[in-house]
Amino acid sequence: MRPFTYETATDAPEAVRAAAASADAHVRAPVQLIGGGTTLLDLMKLDVMRPERLVDVTPLYARFGRIEATPQGLRLGALVRMSEAAEHPAIARDYPVVAQSLAQAASAQLRNMARLGGNVLQRTRCNYFRDPSYSQCNKRDPGSGCAAIDGFNRLHAVLGTSEACIAHYSGDFAQALIALDATVEVLGRQGPRAIAFADLHRLPGRTPHIETTLEPGELITGFVVPAGQWTRRSTYLKVRDRESYAFALASAAVALDMDGDTVRHARIALGGVATVPWRAREAEALLAGRTLDEAAATEAGRAAFAHAVVHQNNAYKVPLGQATVARALLAAQAMRL
Ligand code: SF4
Prior knowledge:
337 residues, alpha+beta, Uridine Diphospho-n-acetylenolpyruvylglucosamine Reductase, domain 2, 5-stranded antiparallel β-sheet, 4-stranded antiparallel β-sheet, 12 strands, globular, binds iron/sulfur cluster
């Protein structure tokens, strides 16, 4: 690991000013804010990320570490630990998709360490990105090419890809947030602002090294999930190679607004199959006003992957993802509230 300096933040605007020194340095920012550090330290040890200065924001926990469940919705501070949110009784009861997405992620040790703000910014598990001995990776070295497109791409995305990058977004919590129309609160040099979670991550396009719409130095401070009767009828289904401590091959976050057996509005988000947290709008539209039965759920699964683009080793993700969507829809419908 390369040498770096470490300091603790005592004030949020000061941390933002420090991180803003990394302006326009999307690939190898010299200053990094660090929370739990569970992604960043990994990538520093692999020599993928090479910050010269780390600013630890966890001392700001008192301000950004709160969970507030009110009749208007749920507010999660960005420094809440994954395990704290996963085990919170009000979240487990009223926002099960949030609790389940967190409980099924990583390992118990990592969930006790990792913070929610860092979780949504985790980087891809593309092996070519994480191994600098491969020279071709547009995300790590813009303009160098993509080793995965003609390489081993079993884990890679089938939705939202580009000719420059097919890396999958590997988180879980983000799918719950995008399905529930959450908002992200951030603090930047110009002060606080809020953005729709759906607008946080960028499709790779020609610039896969620019992963979010955050301005240089902006710090995620919290998430707001609006209340709605669909949040209780919600679930997260994750399919992976082994039952724990594995990333999703395919996942679905589902929240249903039902009128008896008829769908008023289905909210469906996909994980493990797309380059960004992915809202399956076509599948949602197909279900509106329909009776939710096995046939409708299967059709919705197909609609979710209508525009999938597969590569040599990842075609299996289409039928797997379709089945995951269908199973999650039927599981949410069967919930006894
Ligand atoms: Fe890099 Fe993306 Fe290609 Fe992986 S898929 S090698 S992250 S450019």
